[in-house]
């Protein structure tokens, strides 16, 4: 998108289009591993912190509960994760990555890192750091707006 095309477009629209393009790039590179970017991000969080409950996974990946449930079901059916009943609450499950899941993350982490490096090619290191800082600031600000609205 050129600056002429983006005049008047909302930042959320531009961010959404950019997200979909980056996600599509990652998806094309993950295709041979039979995993989507959404499934990969959930598996990555589980692999980094074994024994998470569904709510924690949803929070860490920015997904709602039904979407997280669906993704976990797919990952479990592929043999990439397994669930164990929580010791304190038998209604909740702790989720772990299987050996197959761990191997998939090891094999695909360089692919995800490569997509990030490809994106960085159009930015200086300072611009990339600023972009990440600004996106995190926007994310936190929108969270505060939503929390304040929920209290009203």
UniProtKB/TrEMBL annotation:
Pfam families linked to this entry: MarR
SMART domains, alphabetized: HTH_MARR
Positions of the HTH marR-type domain: 1-140
Top-level taxon of origin: Bacteria
Record's keyword terms, sorted: DNA-binding, Transcription, Transcription regulation
PANTHER family assigned to the protein according to its UniProt record, in alphabetical order: TRANSCRIPTIONAL REGULATOR, MARR, TRANSCRIPTIONAL REPRESSOR OF EMRAB OPERON
Protein name: MarR family transcriptional regulator
